[in-house]
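If your schedule permits, I should be very grateful for your opinion on a structural question. I would ask you to consider whether the tokens describe a fold that such a sequence might reasonably adopt. Thank you for your consideration; the sequence and its tokens are set out here.
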Amino acid sequence: LGAGFPESPAYLARMRAMLAQRGGPFYAMLYAEAPPAAGWPGAAEQEGAAARGRQRLARGAATLARYGLALDAGACRVYASRSGSRRTAYQLCVVAPRP
């Protein structure tokens, strides 16, 4: 949602119908900070990574709110992944329809 996919009123109606039919739990996949390639990061790097993580969660929550969904940032879990030799990470966060 909100990531450049060409949305239409019909698409949004279908998304809402799927949420209503399935009943949850629901998850949003967001980018996360990739783990360091080697060694432990210093304090400055850790704080920078934490700040970027908070910004990503805030942007994700704002995007989901436009669709009537609330993100539970405390329920996010980060997973490391690779694409070829590139290290990356993503997080799955619990979301729920707003009342």
Notes: The chain has a mean pLDDT of 82. The longest helix spans residues 43-65. Strands lie at 26-32, 69-83, 86-97.
